Amino acid sequence: MAIILGIESSCDETSASICVDGQVINNKIASQFIHSGYGGVVPELASREHHKNIVPVVHEVLNDAEIKAKDLSAIAYTRGPGLLGALLVGSSFVKAMAASLNIPIIPVHHMKAHILAHFIDDPKPPFPFICLTVSGGHTQIVKVDSPMDYTILGQTLDDAVGEAFDKAAKLLGLPYPGGHIIDKLSVEGNPDAFQFSNTEMLHLNYSFSGIKTSILYFLRKEIKKNEFFIKENLNDLAASIQKSLIDMLMNKLVKAAKAQRINHIAIAGGVAANSELRKKLGVLAEENQWVTYIPDFQYCTDNAGMISISGHILYEKKQFGRLGETPLPRMPF
Ligand code: KG4
Ligand code: ZN
Predict the structure, then answer these.
(1) Residue 38 has what pLDDT?
(2) Which residue has its alpha carbon closest to ligand 1 atom 23?
(3) pLDDT-based confidence at residue 134 (cuts at 50, 70, 90)
(4) What is the 255 CA–ligand 2 centroid distance (Å)?
(5) Same domain, yes or no, for 75 and 169?
(6) What is the pLDDT of residue 36?
(7) More exposed terminus of the chain, fewer Cβ within 10 Å: N or C?
(8) Does pLDDT of 24 surpass 90?
(9) Nearest ligand for residue 41 CA
(10) Is ligand 1 within 6 A of the CB of residue 135?
């Protein structure tokens, strides 16, 4: 029997999860609300919050699973990419715990774990499949040939799409993180009310900084004419911004699927919660005969369930780490 403890601490969620023989049986997340007043994650504060939360969260998953630390087979943890201070808290904790229990550690790549979250519940995608990973820190189209074999087909060359949602929300005067608020406001808005120019990148890559600037200049111009422009058009603005961002995402995804002749299409990351993205995915699936996969929402945002399932897969392949290894904030794919 393989019992894996998974730990995630790459950004602003301290999370732990237990996976028993490939079944993720729990996933506890201590979220950090301390950043909401700052318009983004403050690295120093994130590290302190991880430091405060990591022991209670691990105790909680062990108690919940009625598992003793001495029964663990290995501990999997996010080695990178992420914030250095945040990763250091997780990796130091994991190394100390594993050393005291004399069990292996399993370093996990955060972005690969987002993809492997599709192997927590059924239906699981068959290989090869394409995964669009969309969150506050990442935007990537990846071809997955096996749990050990990934090819990045395209990615953002500047901001991540979640970041673009959050920055646009800030321009509209909404609190951080504003992605889900834009989504909510869009329900009552006209997505074709306003058009924003964006930068079409070569191949399957993305750029989201251009559209942000276009929104900024557009708002400045309109506010000069009418100081209440945002307030009077909030729903239409939200819906138009959302449509522009999701269209950009999906156009490249269609191109990638066609070029690779793959019709098993998966979506991962926090922006997978977006209602327009889900609607568009459904439409595209009909048009292109795609079979689509989206993990349960708790496994889309940053979570340790995806780390414990990755740990299980890597444990079977004996992909263990060394106690001397250090976190990699820019861990290569
Ligand atoms: O995966 P995640 O929880 O954390 C990161 O690794 O970044 O993703 C968070 C991002 C934030 O940018 C947030 O605004 C965005 O996902 N987000 C959404 C929605 N829910 C979360 N963006 C658009 N629509 C949503 N419904
Ligand atoms: Zn993430």
Answers:
(1) 80
(2) 179
(3) very high
(4) 24
(5) no
(6) 78
(7) N
(8) yes
(9) 1
(10) yes
Q: Hey, what are 165's tokens?
A: 């949602």
Confidence of residue 199 (pLDDT cuts 50, 70, 90): confident
Residue 210: enclosing H or E segment and its boundaries?
Answer: helix 209-225
Pair 133, 278 in one domain: yes
Q: Which of 34-43, 166-175, 267-276 has the lowest mean pLDDT?
A: 34-43
Contacts 24+ apart (CB under 8 A), 153-157: 153/204, 153/256, 153/259, 153/260, 154/203, 154/204, 154/205, 154/206, 154/252, 154/256, 155/205, 155/206, 156/205, 156/206, 156/207, 156/208, 157/201, 157/205, 157/206, 157/207
- Residue 124, φ and ψ in degrees, nearest 5: -95, 140
Residue 166 CA: nearest ligand 1 atom is 14
Are 267 and 136 found together in one domain? yes
| Residue 167 and residue 210 in one domain | yes
Judge whether residue 40 has pLDDT over 90.
Answer: no
**Number of the ligand closest to the Cα of 271:** 1
Tens of pLDDT, residue by residue over 215-227, are 999 999 999 999 9
* Residues pairing with 28 in the sheet: 16
Q: Which tokens belong to 262?
A: 């793959």
Report if residue 333 sits inside a domain: no
Q: Could you tell me the distance, in angstroms and rounded to a whole number, from the CA of residue 194 to the centre of ligand 2?
A: 31
Q: Are residues 67 and 205 in the same domain?
A: no
- 287 in the same domain as 145: yes
